[in-house]
Amino acid sequence: MKTAYFVYCDIMTAKELLPVAKVLEKRGFLIRHIVDQSKSERATTILNKSNILYTKELPTQKDTPDVIISGTSAVVTNAQIEWTKFGRDRGIPTIWFEDTYGTNRRALSVSPDIICVIDDIASDMINDTKRNVRVKVVGKPSFEGFIKYIDKTLEIRKNTCEKLNISENAFIVTLWSGGLYLNRIEAHIKALYNLNELTNREVVYLPRMHPKLQDKPMFELALSNNLNVIDTSHLENSDELILTSNVNVAEWSSNVMYAGVMFGIPSIMCLFPDHGPDNMQERIKVGFKDGTPPLVMEKAGWGANSPENLRNILSFIMNNEHKAIKQVKNNSSVFRKLIENIGAADRIADVVENSIRERREVLN
Q1: For domain 144-339, is the CATH number 3.40.50.12580?
Q2: Residue 13 burial by CB count (10 A; 0-12/13-18/19+): exposed, middle or buried?
Q3: Average pLDDT of 54-62?
Q4: Residue 215: its pLDDT value, please?
Q5: DSSP alpha helices (H): ranges in 172-230?
Q6: What are phi and psi of 352, to 5 degrees?
Q7: What is the fold, at CATH topology level, of the domain defined by 3-139+343-363?
Q8: pLDDT at 137 exceeding the cut of 80
Q9: Pairing of strands 302-304, 203-208
Q10: pLDDT digits (tens, 9 = 90+) for 171-188
Q11: Which of 53, 193, 282, 361 is 20 to 30 Å from the Cα of 337, by its Cα?
Q12: What sign for the dihedral angle of Cα 157, 161, 162, 166?
């Protein structure tokens, strides 16, 4: 029986790789689940819900997997790095799955044998790094969960509005906060004060705090200075909240934006403040041309460079919604492929099996 070690860094790596682990289990693999030791990891949130047993141990001489598969993370990278080094030193095939554009560059001290990526944009970005790795375009397993929502967005909005006691005619602005850098989170929250001043329409504001953010005063700050503010922390299905919104606002590194535009929902990426972490230079480091995220580069969403710019973009979308939606739909075909070309988990599993077979051929 072949053994595969799965290394999880955060919530998204768990959401992406658990389906792959399940495919390999069906193919006869023994799976070991490993979580990073960092206090910032949130992969255990997903694993616990699925009753998955896991360890936080680092490699020892007793470990003899046939293959190591790791997610990539913007911040939580220690287990990813240590298990990759372990695998490379022993000739064990090591594979990363990059779920968000550019996160492979957060761990430049080591490279795996193979990096699986979501699309050709991500592949081109890795090729630009000159990493000595093979790149496989496989899709994005977690986004395939959105397939069930196709042609149901109006129904989802109706049901969610009923749960939250919101008029279906309201313009809903949802903020998806970052999870780490309080100066950025605070800047984004304050830029969204008094949204009713931007339009004559009824505006409802839904601040959604990141699972990593445990700062209660920051959450309270998000619930102030707007006429219609609703706490959505009790809603478990965040995917439906994405689809209920008229516009989603988030940090530039968020997956939410790409999910929204697949359904023609306008998204605004916050590119400010430009000092401190996650600034322009950071975006250039992760591979964005001129520091511009792919969503904005493709004109499928908007990038706000300042609080004033964010409010101007919001005003445009609020008062020209049909035109904004048309722009999103016309320019988001490259991202819609992520739910049109299903089977990502199987494709990653194929990469895993092929890597083991190739290694055995070399050894023989």
Answers
A1: yes
A2: buried
A3: 97
A4: 65
A5: 182-191, 216-222
A6: -60, -50
A7: Rossmann fold (3.40.50)
A8: yes
A9: unpaired
A10: 999 999 987 788 899 999
A11: 282
A12: negative
